[in-house]
């Protein structure tokens, strides 16, 4: 049985994360349910790694229809699901769960979010493009997976080079240090680290401003604030920039389509988020 407050809705969805209170996903998905007249509600579930087994029992028992999965659960949740698709296995993370008659199926839409975000720059054709990815965490793995699938050539840099070695091996990308940036003729630069996010690293950038070259395309996945120092520096150097809300929104739209079969567009959600 669902909690009393949810009995009026046919379907319950939600995000399983910790901390969860600042998540924008409920705003996005509840607006989409309303827009498509779907009798469902999307809630926040404050779930830390160690709570996952008990929480997933609740999902099965109460027939919660689907989940978004975020920090710190994207990797940990994989071992408790009934099925995980090849994409999520390769990326090493699940951000979407679909409850199929009590069997929990995990997949990953982050890589599609990243691809669609890059493509907002004039329907970017990625085959053969040289792309520098900064960072080597879970987000970087999803971004690299998507870009490699499109035939891009990936260069990867990370503060701790040892942390990047597994990713470089799994996805066959070139590991590079700062000393190489100038000689690489990079087309696109993507920050996948948390550097620049509201809080203590807000005024920092993971990339030296003097290395940006005019007409490069520069994307950040940080969306709070939208104009990070990384993007400001890039803009000043004459680069085209892609702000971080795009990947967030596109991965959510893909998730929504998997759950409901309904397609919505970026501008609708930007309107909801007042961006
Ligand atoms: P996520 O799953 O969101 O990608 P993560 O797995 O914790 O998060 O990875 C965070 C990434 O941001 C890592 O590449 C990390 O670099 P390290 O491997 O050196 O830890 C990077 N990162 C975090 N803080 C950073 C900082 N202050 N400067 C540079 N890189 C940073």
- The global form is globular
- Tell me the helix content: 25-40%
Helical/strand content category = alpha/beta
* Range of strand content: 15-25%
Query: What small molecules does this complex bind?
Result: 2'-monophosphoadenosine-5'-diphosphate
Task: Provide a descriptive summary of the structure in words.
- The chain is an alpha/beta fold and 275 residues long.
- Helix content is 33%, strand content 19%.
- The chain contains nine helices and twelve strands.
- It has helices at residues 25-35, 52-61, 86-91, 110-119, 138-149, 161-171, 229-236, 245-260, 266-272; strands at residues 11-17, 40-46, 66-69, 83-84, 96-100, 103-107, 130-134, 153-157, 174-175, 188-191, 217-220, 240-242.
- The strands form two sheets. It has a six-stranded mixed sheet with strand order 2-1-3-5-6-4. Strands 9-8-7-10-11-12 form a six-stranded parallel sheet, sandwiched between helices.
- A hairpin with a 2-residue loop joins β5 (96-100) and β6 (103-107).
- α1 packs across α8 (245-260).
- The chain is globular and about 60 Å long.
- It starts with 10 loop residues before the first strand and ends with a helix.
- The relative contact order is 0.13.
- The site of 2'-monophosphoadenosine-5'-diphosphate has 16 residues, from α5.
